Amino acid sequence: MTVVSNTTPLSELAKVGKLELVQAVFGKIIIPQEVYDELTTGSHPAANLVPSADWIEVRVIQDRQRLLTLQEQTGLDLGESAAIILAEELSAVRLLIDERAGRQIAQSRNIPVVGTMGLLLLAKQLKLIPSIKDVLDELRNQGQYISQKLYEDVLAIAQELF
């Protein structure tokens, strides 16, 4: 199963010490070089975790022109555009991406997407985590914006809304 990831799900899960959930749910994932560069720049927790994660494979986009064209046409950032193009090049079964515009463009190109919330729901379903609420609360505490509606919807699906 080929899963490609964008930056945000990996960086946000790294912030709360849950990066290993990506491996536990999907096994090996593939990221484009552009995403690797975003993840390993600065003092973010992912900067130390991603290079040592042997389950993350970095690939170079084969068709740079497609990447630049997508970025120019959509206004997506380089990492999002690269993740979408790499998912197409590899015929990925999933693209792990959170940003709404990126998700919409990926779906319009028939790329199945899942975000951090979907990954957390899968992790709970697989009994890898006892509670999604704890992880969502920690993500919020670390500064990730999660709307109240999404927060409540995810907890309702997880049967954690009281």
UniProtKB/TrEMBL annotation:
InterPro entries for the chain: PIN-like_prokaryotic
Domain of life: Bacteria
Protein name, per record: Nucleic acid-binding protein
Organism: Desertifilum tharense IPPAS B-1220
